[in-house]
Design a protein that fits this description.
With 186 residues, the chain is of the alpha+beta class. The chain is built from five helices and ten strands, in the order αβαββαβαβββββαβ. β8 and β9 form a beta hairpin. It comes from Seonamhaeicola maritimus.
């Protein structure tokens, strides 16, 4: 009986060790800056483009994402919201990309780890702008989707707690001071 008990204990301990190692592998894989797309025929790394100009396909994808996001203009703010009943900033971006088979993290701080960081001079429609508004943690806590980029104007759609889903300009003092970085995920 003691040998059977010892054998069962050893098997149990081995199963615990195996679970722990596979969990580490999952976490390590999840920390990449790659954007997940739903198309199964793509090679690893597709979905992120490391150039400052977009191809025609990328522009059309950006147009579709922006078009979807604009449907929510005027929707009230709701923390954690992802529908016309209420929307928050990361929910707006998350849903706009998800509908186009591009899967981003749900939280703005995590979104800011995806794609490629770009300069404001290279920002185009469909890129993301990240902000640190007045919060205690001094961390990225707001995201907006670029809907218009020209030499003089940079407009983005986002959800604010006071006005809901609106379009703003980066040249507005509040947003200019809170701006941290721009990123391209297309």
């Amino acid at each position: 009986m003691n040998k059977l008990h010892l054998l069962i204990s050893i098997l149990f301990l081995l199963s615990l060790v195996n679970c722990k190692s596979s969990k580490r592998a999952k976490n390590k894989k999840a920390s990449t800056n790659k954007v997940i797309t739903k198309t199964s025929t793509e090679k690893e790394g597709d979905g992120i483009y490391n150039s400052s100009s977009k191809s025609e396909n990328e522009f059309s994808k950006a147009n579709e994402i922006v078009k979807f996001a604009k449907q929510f203009k005027g929707v009230r703010y709701k923390w954690g919201g992802t529908t016309k009943a209420g929307m928050d900033c990361s929910g707006l971006v998350y849903e706009s990309f998800r509908v186009n088979n591009i899967y981003l993290p749900r939280i703005s701080g995590d979104m800011a780890k995806k794609g490629q960081k770009i300069t404001l001079k290279k920002v185009q429609e469909g890129d993301l702008l990240f902000f640190k508004t007045k919060n205690r943690r001094n961390a990225i806590n707001h995201v907006g989707l670029v809907i218009k980029s020209s030499n003089k104007t940079l407009e983005f759609i986002h959800a604010t707690s006071s006005k809901g889903v609106i379009i703003s300009k980066l040249s507005e003092v509040y947003w200019h001071k809170s701006f941290v970085e721009a990123r391209r995920v297309l």
